[in-house]
Amino acid sequence: MAIVTSKEMFKKAYDGGYAIGAFNVNNMEIIQGITEAAMEKHAPLILQVSKGARAYAKHVYLMKLIEAAIADAEQSAGFDLPICVHLDHGDTFELCKSCIDGGFTSVMIDGSSKSFEDNIALTKQVVEYAHDHGVVVEGELGTLAGVEDEVKVSAEDSSYTRPEEVEEFVSRTGVDSLAIAIGTSHGAYKFTAAQCTRNADGILVPPPLRFDILDEVSKRLPGFPIVLHGSSSVPQEFVKIINENGGKMPDAVGIPEEQLRQAARGAVCKINIDSDLRLAMTASIRKYFAEHPDHFDPRQYLKPARIAIKSMVEHKLVDVLGCDGKA
Ligand SMILES: [Zn+2]
Predict the structure, then answer these.
(1) How is the chain split into domains, by residue range?
(2) 88 catalytic, yes or no?
(3) How many angstroms is it from 148 CA to the middle of ligand 1?
(4) pTM
(5) How far apart are CA 31 and CA 24, in angstroms?
(6) Cα angle 65, 28, 20; round to 5
(7) Residue 272 CA to ligand 1 centre (angstroms)
(8) Which of 88, 91, 274, 324 is catalytic?
């Protein structure tokens, strides 16, 4: 199978009450960990590449690694692994065009920091080029707080999506999916202590997602796929391993998985996960180094890191996204 768009994936996900996982990729081990999990669980997959990932690994390396993953699934498991390759947070028409010309099947144009009219104009320009080339487009309304690669937004500058704007935005731009802000946040430090309460173990409990906004948006856009960014759950077992093995990540906290599961049952068809991959990998490597101070072969510590990513992704596919067996 070749790389596919998310069109069919989203239609089935919307009707089936589940979501597709969109995992950020940066290197071979991360791509292998994610795709091996998807093979095992027969799950459709979106692999997404940020501007920073493209700068780090180069476009062609990531494309060839993803093509290799599809070929490997076919050869080793006889399985047609459906993968959509998506640009995460495209910020200019030129960047989107370059990814479309380079074989991506989906791009995000993030005009959320612009005025409503400027966001529409930029998004429409990308949609016209993308649709001419058989590529789908994700737009964004509302801004998430937090840090993701080159996207940095303070809590004061973040804003929830205004449901009264979504119909006009979608009809005037022609986007295929829409990212909205309902209280998720980028990075491993999604919320300040002041925004949270603490549970009995002293762990921060974040404010609940604004399902009222999601409900209002989905009522206004029936059948239309909604996207959640900043949706890592920052598993506390990884944070604990990191902190116990020389790391320092106090008060790292994410979105509770049951809230993501609830969103996936509704109009949310794509859930972005990046920080949890980083945490799984970092926890594994920190633990490995602490236990084997004399080891220096990268294969020794990257192999368990790849396994840690695989098992974390399997858990997401089955217990959070509900997309296992849907490929
Ligand atoms: Zn994002």
Answers:
(1) 7-321
(2) yes
(3) 7
(4) 0.96
(5) 9
(6) 75
(7) 7
(8) 88
